[in-house]
Write a structure and sequence with these properties.
Length: 406
């Protein structure tokens, strides 16, 4: 939950100062108290708005989380926000949204809500451990988150506090993790006046959209801007704007964010472009909806699954077909051409010698050039050797006939 620092079950939480400076009591009076069908066993988180406990059903052993408003928040009329959170969640009905299935009031008048108890880690804890995520895991987280936000927006709700603390990764043995979007404590609910909805700046400064920082009216596009911040942080290990709260908020309104690919390697250009579109200053320039952003993400995911193969060059076909057909004739041509070249080369040498020794006497070289030409009729003789055997049988038969007549 936003502002609720989750602790390890069984390990006592330190004494946390309240916003007014008064310390939290060392012994919590709510421990062992029965609220509805559940008995509170331990405190597992605390924040500025409420305290979260782990509770158990005494008969069936089902575990649940119970969020109780802090006593000092009663004077600020924030008790109504817990009921608005329960209404908002039950209006969405999506597996990626934390389920709230009961609510009530303590004897002192403080409201509480009963939620499913999640097993796993927040995205903030995962990023603290790994620094950044690979492209495939980032795309999976964004797809799950956009799916949940799509359902949120279709129900007319704006979360207004999408940050790594409110994205929970459920982890089970031998199964794939699932994602849950939690803490609708400052959500904008349709036809309801929620605290901070009229001109007040609400949310986490590092993940707030420019329109939230200005205190203006926010819509679903504000949540998409926060998704862009998370995407940038998952890909690079850091948010696009760094500094104190006021510096970050000023940058959210005025500064152009860098492309994620300038901070980390291996980011596809299409994913780079989608993150920058989510981080547009004007809401109209961001994706039209969470579903539209998810469709772009699906194309990126499909491209990541498609193996990139280099173009295969065609095998040389021309050379094998030309060489066999030219082989029978090329041998004879090579012999004739080689002989001509050697004889011409020899003639040149002889001629050079004659010119060197005899000077102007060049007449003896003329007959030498004509001698290779006389040799060419030699290959014609084989066909003439085949003709005589074909003509012998007809010549013998008439002689036998003459002998018989005699």
């Amino acid at each position: 939950m936003a502002g609720e620092s989750m602790s390890t079950p069984g390990v006592p939480d330190p004494v946390l100062p309240s916003p007014e400076g008064s310390p939290t009591p060392a012994v919590d009076p709510l421990l062992t108290m029965r609220l509805g069908e559940f008995i509170i066993e331990e405190r597992i988180g605390a924040g500025g708005m409420g305290v979260v406990y782990r509770a158990v059903h005494p008969l069936i052993g089902k575990h649940a989380a119970i969020k109780v408003l802090r006593p000092e928040r009663m004077a600020r009329r924030e008790e109504a926000q817990l009921l608005l959170e329960a209404k908002a969640v039950n209006a969405i009905r999506h597996p990626g949204i934390l389920d709230i299935f009961n609510c009530g009031t303590l004897p002192d008048g403080r409201p509480y809500i009963v939620m499913e108890l999640l097993q796993g880690r927040t995205l903030s804890e995962v990023l603290l451990e790994k620094g950044k995520l690979d492209v495939e895991l980032t795309v999976w987280v964004l797809d799950q988150l956009l799916s949940a936000l799509g359902a949120v927006h279709r129900a007319g709700v704006v979360h207004r506090d999408v940050n790594p603390e409110n994205v929970f990764l459920r982890e089970f043995l031998d199964t794939k993790p699932t994602l849950k979007l939690v803490d609708f404590g400052i959500a904008q609910v349709p036809r309801e006046e929620s605290p901070g909805a009229n001109g007040a700046m609400t949310g986490t400064p590092e993940c707030m959209s420019p329109e939230q920082i200005r205190g203006g009216t926010v819509g679903p596009a504000a949540d998409l801007y926060s998704v862009g911040i998370l995407a940038f942080q998952m890909l690079t290990g850091a948010r696009p704007f760094q500094g104190e709260h006021m510096q970050v908020m000023f940058a959210q309104v005025e500064s152009v964010p860098p492309a994620p690919s300038t901070r980390a390697e291996g980011i596809p250009p299409a994913l780079d472009a989608l993150v920058l579109q989510l981080l547009e200053k004007k809401p109209a320039r961001r994706p039209a909806s969470a579903e539209a952003a998810r469709q772009q993400l699906s194309a990126i995911e499909a491209a990541l699954r498609t193996p990139v193969t280099p173009p295969v060059q065609a095998e040389p076909v021309v050379v094998p077909t030309v060489v066999p057909s030219a082989a029978p004739t090329s041998r004879r041509n090579k012999v004739v051409v080689g002989a001509a070249v050697l004889m011409a080369f020899g003639v040149g040498i002889v001629g050079g010698r004659v010119q060197h020794k005899a000077g102007p006497a060049q007449a003896p070289t003329a007959p030498a050039v004509k001698r290779p030409v006389v040799v060419e009729p030699a290959p014609v003789s084989p066909p003439t050797l085949v003709a005589p055997p074909a003509s012998e049988p007809p010549a013998q038969e008439p002689q036998k006939e003459d002998s018989l007549q005699e």
